[in-house]
Design a protein that fits this description.
The protein contains six helices and no strands. By secondary structure, it is mostly helical.
Length: 103
């Protein structure tokens, strides 16, 4: 029985560099997104690329506080619960098509 955790640890150490360390973008904004939120074309045209980057930086600083970790864990648990609720065939289709079963 002692060998099973050791094998899992070795597997974890082998897989970590390629799969566990991959990052995924969390925040992205665009002028099109600002338009969808109700900003006018005139307002959006006044924003330089530097202004857009400043907006993103401010949002990121506000968003990635101590509550972010809790929200990430909560959201991951929701996704895991959905995987359990979905039949395996729907999960396979999502992986192959790169979208959700509802798309």
């Amino acid at each position: 029985m002692y060998n099973t955790p050791l094998r899992e640890l070795l597997f974890f150490r082998q897989e970590t560099p390629h799969t566990w360390c991959k990052t995924y973008a969390v925040l992205s904004i665009s002028r099109l997104y600002l338009s969808s939120l109700g900003l006018t074309t005139e307002q959006i045209n006044r924003l330089t690329d530097e202004d857009m980057q400043r907006i993103a930086d401010i949002l990121q600083a506000q968003r990635f506080d101590h509550e972010f970790d809790e929200e990430v864990a909560f959201t991951a648990r929701i996704v895991l619960a959905e995987k359990i609720a979905l039949p395996q065939t729907n999960q396979d289709n999502q992986t192959k098509e790169g979208g959700s079963a509802d798309d």
